[in-house]
């Protein structure tokens, strides 16, 4: 057999370049989608009731290995959230360069604790025992709930619901060496292929929102799937459908008649969380309007907002000032007897107006065949 020629250094360098280009093309294909679904959360309406969280938990994360997973969370801000101090864990992009991030531990998310129900309810010990988690947990999904910040009487907090942002430029997808993460062509939902995932967890390090969990039983990564089996049938995701506050809007970004387009593009009042992470999230937030401050005598002090603007800029970027100005101007308009399309959208007189094309009742769907 003729001996194979040894490639020159130049040929090797050329091949390495081609491989890099090939890998980039593959990633670009995985990121491509024709349309994009999105959510908008109006933070002025969230009650922190956790109904959305429980709806998601009940529907999607009840299997073994998923006990500690909460794909939908609602945390108090300012606060450390879940996983603990996720905002300091890095990931995302700087320019086009992926940034390394920390791999959150199970303890930072918070374990799924057992409680001493038997002892309290059936132990016959009366008031001598209280319901408490087993072990000595040091953090959990809502450990710092309602703590907030500031000094009485000007203390403040607000609730921030979070799910995977189904980003246009997902850091998780970019980081996966198995190309197991992809965006669906028809709606841009970001999914992890459980067959391809080998549990390397680079996605967890890379996601700046730390919205991926590791299933220690199945040895794969798992996350919010935007309820795609419901969305495909015209039903809104469970978290949105169950929310009693009517604050979770769902729809396509390019649907000019839908609430998402109007809130994000037309009025520009809904903004992504930590846009500087460079993943181009498709979950947007209407920022909280500050309640008034009080001075030492208990009189209203309008010299500055109770929620520091700098803090809101840290969360939502510089556009937050413009968003708040627009909201206040529209409120002034209606107070003066005028009409406001923006406020009519945000008030949500009729629940169906939240969900664009996803207003079908799950009860009306054909039952799934066994
Ligand atoms: S939020 Fe995180 S997990 Fe979700 S698509 Fe963006 S980078 Fe990926
Ligand atoms: S169900 Fe609605 S109001 Fe309750 S915590 Fe979730 S987003 Fe907030």
Task: Give the SSE layout.
Elements: H1 9-31, E1 37-42, H2 51-60, E2 73-77, E3 93-94, E4 97-98, H3 106-109, H4 117-122, E5 158-162, H5 171-175, E6 181-183, E7 190-192, H6 202-206, E8 212-215, E9 220-223, H7 228-231, H8 238-242, E10 248-252, H9 259-266, E11 271-272, E12 283-286, E13 293-294, E14 300-301, H10 309-316, H11 320-335, H12 341-347
Parallel strand pairs: 1-12
Antiparallel strand pairs: 1-10, 2-5, 3-4, 6-7, 8-9, 11-12, 13-14
Keywords:
370 residues, binds iron/sulfur cluster, 14 strands, four-stranded mixed sheet, 12 helices, alpha+beta, two-stranded antiparallel sheet, single chain
What do you see in this structure?
With 370 residues, this protein is α+β, with helices and mostly antiparallel strands. The protein has twelve helices and 14 strands. The strands form six sheets. A four-stranded mixed beta sheet has the order 10-1-12-11. A two-stranded antiparallel ribbon has the order 2-5. It has a two-stranded antiparallel ribbon with strand order 3-4. Strand 3 and strand 4 (97-98) form a beta hairpin. The radius of gyration is 23 Å and the shape is globular. The N and C termini lie far apart (58 Å). The mean pLDDT is 95. The structure holds iron/sulfur cluster (SF4) (2 copies). One iron/sulfur cluster is lined by residues 46-52, 74, 159, 161, 243-245, 247-248.
């Amino acid at each position: 057999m003729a001996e194979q020629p040894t490639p020159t250094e130049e040929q090797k360098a050329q091949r390495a370049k081609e491989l890099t280009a090939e890998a980039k093309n593959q990633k670009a294909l995985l990121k491509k989608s024709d349309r994009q679904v999105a959510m908008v959360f109006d933070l002025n309406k969230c009650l922190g009731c956790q109904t959305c969280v429980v709806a998601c938990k009940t529907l999607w994360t009840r299997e073994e290995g998923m006990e500690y997973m909460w794909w939908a969370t609602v945390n108090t801000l300012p606060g450390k959230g879940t996983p603990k101090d996720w905002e300091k864990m890095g990931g995302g992009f700087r320019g086009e360069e992926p940034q390394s991030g920390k791999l959150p531990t199970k303890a930072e998310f918070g374990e799924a604790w057992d409680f001493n129900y038997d002892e309290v309810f059936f132990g016959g010990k009366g008031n001598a025992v209280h319901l408490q988690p087993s072990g000595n947990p040091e953090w959990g999904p809502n450990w710092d709930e309602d703590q907030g910040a500031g000094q009485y009487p000007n203390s403040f907090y607000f609730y921030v619901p979070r799910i995977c942002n189904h980003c246009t430029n997902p850091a998780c997808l970019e980081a996966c060496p198995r190309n197991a993460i992809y965006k669906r062509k028809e709606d841009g939902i970001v999914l992890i292929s459980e067959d391809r995932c080998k549990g390397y967890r680079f996605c967890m390090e890379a996601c700046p929102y730390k919205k991926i969990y590791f299933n220690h039983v199945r040895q794969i990564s798992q996350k919010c799937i935007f309820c795609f089996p419901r969305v495909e049938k015209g039903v809104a995701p469970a978290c949105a459908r169950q929310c009693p506050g009517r604050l979770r809007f769902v729809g396509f970004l390019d649907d000019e008649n839908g609430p998402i387009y109007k809130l994000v593009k037309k009025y520009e009042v809904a903004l992504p969380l930590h846009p500087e992470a460079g993943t181009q999230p498709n979950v947007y937030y209407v920022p909280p309007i500050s309640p008034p401050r009080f001075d030492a005598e208990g009189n209203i002090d309008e010299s500055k907002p109770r929620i520091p603007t700098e803090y809101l800029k840290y969360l939502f970027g510089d556009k937050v000032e413009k968003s708040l100005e627009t909201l206040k101007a529209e409120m002034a308009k209606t107070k003066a007897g005028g009409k406001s399309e923006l406020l009519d959208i945000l008030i949500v007189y009729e629940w169906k107006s939240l969900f664009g094309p996803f207003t079908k009742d799950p009860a009306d769907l054909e039952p799934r065949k066994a």
